[in-house]
Predict the structure of DUF4296 domain-containing protein.
Amino acid sequence: MKKYIFICVVLIGISCNNNPISKPKNDLGEAKMVEILHDIAVLQAAEVYNAEKLIDGNVNTTTYIFEKYGIDSLTFVQNQRYYTSNPKEYKKIYDAIIKKVDAQKAIADTLAKKEVIEKKTTFKKLDTSFKPKKMRIE
């Protein structure tokens, strides 16, 4: 019976290890993971929103990410596993991604509003310059 209790205590001790996954040899760092995961999020959104352009452009999103950052799939998976096993660090990464996306959204919204204003101004100019000919009704 004492052997079973000892085995259970050892197993519980091993399973309660705080960080079961060690840092990968090719650690990308939090800043680079933010950039990579942000780009993945943007590309996934582009795939959903306008997949035809990516297909027409022959863009493979996974290959694009790996080539852009000079990494391979194993390095990415190892880093992804490491950061997901550390929730506090992973939350920092995702908070940084959210800030970056929000900043880009604010810029896009500003540009969209500016474009709408320019179109309205152009339309008003065209509208005021248009003078219909008087028609005589007989």
Summary: The mean pLDDT is 79. The radius of gyration is 28 Å. Helices lie at 2-15, 29-56, 61-69, 73-84, 87-129. Residues 87-129 form the longest helix (43 residues).
